Amino acid sequence: MYPSERRSLYRFLAIYLLSTFILFSLGSYIFYIYEKHHLLDQQKKLLDIEANKVKHQLMILHKNLGDKLPITLNDGYEIVLWDIDNRCIFSTYKVTEDINISNEYHIQNNYIEHISVVDPYYLGVAYLIIKKPIDNSRINELILMIVLFMIFAGIFFILIGYFLGRLFVAPMRESIEMMNSFIQDTTHELNTPISTILTNLELIETIHNCSAKKEMKRIEIASKTLSRIYDDLTYLRLNHDYNKDIKDIDFSMLLQERLLYFASYIDSKGIKVDKKIVDKVIVEIDRDDAIRLVDNLLSNAIKYNQIGGSLSVEVDSSSLSIKDSGIGIAPNELSSILERFKRANSSEGGFGIGLHIIDQIVQSYGFRLEIKSELRRGTEVTIRW
Predict the structure, then answer these.
(1) Model-level pTM greater than 0.70?
(2) Which one, of 187, 295, 290, 298, lies nearest residue 245 by Cα?
(3) Measured between alpha carbons, how far apart are the two ends of the chain, in Å?
(4) pLDDT-derived band at 290, boundaries 50, 70, 90
(5) 160: which of 30, 56, 244, 312 is 20 to 30 A away, CA to CA?
């Protein structure tokens, strides 16, 4: 799966699963509240039944004028009997605080409490307060059922989301495959003519005394540009998956060679080069990757530079830095400038793959890439190893 395809799939799954989770969480919460109230209502009905049973006992005692209150309760129930002045007449537990008799039911301290009015006042009792511990077993079963439902529903929707996501990115995959096929065919067709042009240019410059020096330089620049594009497209087609010969490279010497390679291009734009190259800077890297890294940095710095501008090239034991005085990159473009086919400026042409290739090489070797840029002031790219 290609990185862009993977990113699109992850974004789709994130939006899909997040919205589904929020929807199901809201539905489950509403269902939980409704069912919990239903379970509590059942317990309230049991309290009401027990309260009516106690009232019946009070009525019998009142008629018999008994001197004791042998009230019987089912297990777990406790009562308090109050007179009209809110004074406790009888209690099966110690009353430590005033009881609010304005509401019929109370839930506190894991108890459900029922206040019932006794009318007429049997034995002077005006209010009957009966309470019982809340039966949490049914509520816990409800919570467990909802959690299990959310887990299984989550697994189901992850699978459905992944399947839908693959369908969602299928057109993108087809487009990428078509583009890669085009790149492969193009690079194959470009290889032979580019090699022929460069070889014959070298022969003409070496053997023949050609008077059209300026025209020959233009052909050389164009041919080298085509050659670099060919190398970059080949790198993308292989997805940087090829046998690498990683060894110690004299990066200082390689940088000098690549500056000489781009000398015609630099001279054609009248760019002044400021070089600060420490000798014998050794970097452990594949030579082709090193050339591709430097060529893309120099190519961008020259291409997007102004006529008669400046180019600063620095290398030491810890880093490579290339700074130009070109058009720069807008701040809002910096965060996405490393993406494949991303172009911050369309006026200079190109495929938008140079910085992407640089980033891929930097990541593969564990280097660090830093880009600083200001519009119409220039760009500085630093690679630290």
Answers:
(1) no
(2) 290
(3) 29
(4) very high
(5) 30
